[in-house]
Amino acid sequence: MRFSKITWALPFFALLLAGCEGDGLATPDPSLSGRDQEFLALAPKADIPSQFQRYEVADPTGEKPGTVIVDTKHMYLYYILPGGKAMRYGIAAGSEAAGWTGTATIGRKEEWPHWMPPSDMLKRWPHLQPTADAGGLPGGPGNPLGSRAMYLFQGNKDTLYRIHGTNEPEQIGQAVSSGCIRMSNIDAIDLYDRVKVGTKVIVE
């Protein structure tokens, strides 16, 4: 996980963190908000392999329209559409040791979310402790959750796993995360606009 050096962040973040995940836009998209256009222009960019770019495909899952299926083996996320179709996105997911599987629902959605390093991450990367001490990192292009976050719940309990944007779009298609499901920032926005709180998510 990287963080970009950006002028609006607190000064010590620039010393601790180096680069942020996220796909940018080659040209402004008028359907996006002004904040989205501004932040995406500042976020890191990468050429994502064609097989991990967003496509509408035949539904390979047989699940009900409106369901999200995460295929961690092949690094795809599917949003099931009516008529036997699905929107397929490339993702980065957890390694076998860090990955999470199960059924959940989207319990909360946030645009350009605030990020607080979880306790298990602080144990692995103590250099992030000043970020926690400062109350976390505000939303924006320097935030590792990227443009959008969809929080996975089981019942009323937060699983602590999320579907979110990424500041390392070059790693889409790889098993590299700490368990969360990363998408390019522009794909995270697209999925966010399709799902709602209560959407069923199956991670396999």
What brief labels describe this structure?
204 residues, alpha/beta, L,D-transpeptidase catalytic domain-like, 9-stranded mixed sheet, 5 helices, 11 strands, globular
Care to describe what's here?
It holds the Pfam family YkuD. The active site is at 164 (proton donor/acceptor), 180 (nucleophile). This is L,D-transpeptidase-like protein. It comes from Methylovirgula ligni. Keywords: Cell shape, Cell wall biogenesis/degradation, Glycosyltransferase, Hydrolase, Peptidoglycan synthesis, Transferase. Mean pLDDT is 84; it is low at 1-26. Strand 3 and strand 4 (85-90) form a beta hairpin. The strands form two sheets. The protein has a nine-stranded mixed beta sheet with strand order 1-4-3-2-11-6-7-8-10, with helices on one face. A two-stranded parallel sheet has the order 5-9. The protein has five helices and eleven strands; from the N terminus they run ααββββββααββββαβ. The chain has helices at 11-16, 34-42, 119-124, 129-133, 185-194; strands at 55-58, 68-71, 76-81, 85-90, 93-94, 102-111, 148-154, 157-165, 175-177, 181-183, 200-203. With 204 residues, it is α/β, with parallel strands linked by helices. The protein has one domain: L,D-transpeptidase catalytic domain-like (Beta Barrel). The chain starts with 10 loop residues before the first helix and ends with a strand. The longest helix is centred in the C-terminal third of the chain and has 10 residues, at 185-194.
